[in-house]
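Human: Cast an eye over this sequence-structure pair and say how the chain folds.
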Amino acid sequence: MNQVLFTLCVGALVSSIYAYSTYKAQPELARGVGNGNYNYSAVIHASLLFYEAQRSGKLPADKRIPWRGDSMLDDGKTVGKDLTGGYFDAGDLVKFGFPMAATMTILSWGLVDYEDAYQKAGELENMRNAIKWGTDYFLKCHTSDNEFYGQVGNGNEDHAVWGRPEDWPKTGKVRPAYKVTTAKGGTDLLGETSAALAAASIAFAKSDPTYSATLLTHAKSLYTFADKHRSTYTAEITDAANFYKSWSGFGDELAWAATWLLRATNDSQYKAEVDKHFNEFGKQLMGKSTQFGWDDKTAGVQVLLAEVTGDQKYKTLAQTFCDWVVNTAPKTPKGMVYLDQWGTLRHAGNVAFVCLQAAKVGVNPDAYRKFGEKQIGYILGDTGRSFVVGVGVNPPAHPHHRASSCPDEPKVCDYSAMSNPGPNPHVLTGAMVGGPDQNDAYVDKRDDYVHNEVAMDYNAGFQGALAALLHLQTI
C-alpha cells in the first residue's frame, strides 16, 4: 500500500469512527425495516446537520460539522459588496439564489405551521438558525430597492474544480457575482426571494420581532421590484440558465410572493395582488401542475391560499393536484411517486409535504396523510434501504458532494477524490440523495450525479413532511 493510499484509508477510518460515535449518540433513527415506524425527531436533527454542512462564509464557533471551516470569504469582492454567507447549492460550491430562496420558503412554511414539532424534536433553535443563515444572506444581496445579487460563482468554472470550499481561494480566483436590476429585471428570482423573506418574517415574529420586521420590509420591496420590472431572471444572470432556468415562467412566483405577503400582513392589498395574478396567469394558476419545487410553485400557491383564505375554490384546486398525485401519477413498483428522472426523491418529498398541507386544511386528510407517510417511509427505509446519508439501514455512502468526499489528508483534494471507490471520508449526515429510477433501481455511486447528488432543495419538502408527520403524532 503506497503512502497516499494509506493516508486516504486512515482519514476515512477516522472520519467513520467519528461519524459512528455521533450516530450512536443520537436517538434511534429507524426502528426496523418496512414497518414505517421511524423516529422523525432524529431525522429532522440529521437533516439540519446537512444544511449546516452546506454553509458558506464565516462559520460560528459552535459549528456542529467539524470537517467544515470558513470559506468563500471574498464573495462579493469583485463588485465591492459583502456577499459572504448563504448556502452552497448541492454537491458543488455555487450559491444559486433561485433554488436557495425556494428552499428557505419551504423550510419556513414547515416551521410556521409545525413549530411544535421542532420543539418536540429539540431542534427549534437550530431550525431558526438554518433559516436565518439563508435570510441574512438575502438581506446582503438586496443592496438597493432595485438591485439584487442572485448568484455568486460561475457554474462552469465551479464544476471544473473538485475540492474543498475552504481551499477555493488557493486557486487565485475571486468568484464573480451576478445581479438583476431594472435594466432587465428578474421576476421569478425576486418573487421567490420575497416569498422566502415574508415566510421567514412569520417564523421570527415572536422570537425576534425586530428581525421579523426587517425581513418583511425587504420582502415588500422585492415584490414591488419583481412586479414592476418583469422578466425571467436568466435574461440578466445568463449563467444560471444552464442550471436553474425557470421553465414555468414567473406568474407562479408573483402569486406565491403575494400570498406569503398576505399571510404575513393580513393586508387586503395583497389579496388584491393575488387576485390580479390569478386574472393574468389564470390558465397556469388555476391548472394542475405535475410537480412542486424550486421552479413551479403553482401547487404551493393553491394549497397555501386554501390555508390562508379558507376559500373552497382553492381547496378544490389543491384537491385536484393531490388526487392526481395520490391516485394517478406514475409510481414505481415499490410505491415511490415518480415525477421526473432527476432527483426523484426530491419530488416525492415535495408533493408529500404539499399534500400533507392540503390534509391540514381538511382536504382528504386520511388519504393524503397516508400518502405522505408512505413516501417518507420509502425514503427512510421501507424498501430495505435508506436514501438519507447516515440515517437508517444501508444508507448511501458515496454522495456526489465535494466537501464530504475530500479526506483530511492529503491536503490536496481534486477529481481523484471524486473517483475514489471508497465511501466519502466524511459522513454527510442527513443529506437525501437524488434517489432511484422508475424501477426502484439505485446504485450508490459518487459519479452518478443524477441519482446520487444531494441539494438544498432536495431536503426542503422532505424535512417539511417530517415536521408535519411529527406534529400529527403529538395531537
Q: What stands out?
A: The radius of gyration is 21 Å.
